[in-house]
Amino acid sequence: MEGLKIMNKTALVRGSNRGIGLATALTLAREGLKVFAGMRDPQSNSKDILSLVSDESLAVEIVELDVDNEASVQRCFGAIESSGEKVDVLINNASMLGPRVPIAHYPEIEWAKVFQINVIAPFVLTKGLFCLLDTGEDSCVINISSSVGRKGRAYWGAYSASKFAIEGFTQTLADETEEAKRIRAVSYTHLT
After folding, report:
1. For the range 104-113, what are the long-range contacts, defined as Cβ-Cβ under 8 Å and sequence gap of 24 or more?
2. Which residues of the chain carry a pLDDT beneath 70?
């Protein structure tokens, strides 16, 4: 977040029910951002973040965000719009590991599921929020990647390939938005 002016900013964090997403949502809220915590199933996944948010009086609103369900995506966008907020920061964090098996034994349906969650969902959200992001002066799309998305390793299959894809998506978006300089696109790589 270095260099990003954060006063009066709003972030949508996809996959904020645990791990990196939860830590990111809470850190942004502690820094003063209004955070929309996007979760596939908020009813069953929001316990950790709700207790921390209430303890610290942070500006976090939990929203349903199941990118496999167009109605859910529209409800999420509607919740943001009805709050009068815009989106300055989009963090595509949610991901699926998939089976850790050799490519020769990788189930095709599982490969497709991993790509749906790890690659197609960030594309859908970024495209859907592009107009809101583009109206800001200092907006940012952050895609969470992995070290196996920069150097493939045995038995990481679809996860590794999908993280290579998210790196390419991020670079393409960064190149497309470079001239206007209203949206920055970056990837954050965690060690796997």
Report:
1. 106/157, 106/158, 110/158, 111/157, 111/158
2. 1-7, 45-48, 54-55
**Dihedral angle sign, alpha carbons of residues 69, 15, 157, 148:** positive
Instruction: Name residue 158's amino acid.
Output: A
C-alpha distances out from residue 28 to 34, 103, 119, Å: 8, 38, 24
pLDDT at position 1: 47
**Catalytic residue status for 159:** yes
> Strand, helix or coil at 116?
helix
In the prediction, which pLDDT does 98 show? 97
* Coil, strand or helix at 154: coil
CA gap 64, 27 in Å, rounded? 20
What is the distance of C-alpha 52 from the center of its chain?
Answer: 20
CA separation for the pair 113, 158 (Å, rounded): 9
Q: How far apart are the first and last CA of the chain?
A: 22
Task: Spot the catalytic one: 106, 155, 159, 188.
Answer: 159
Per DSSP, the chain holds a count of helices (H) and strands (E) of 7, 6
Strands (E) across 29-181 are located at 34-39, 60-64, 89-92, 139-146
Helix (H, G, I), strand (E, B) or coil at 64: strand
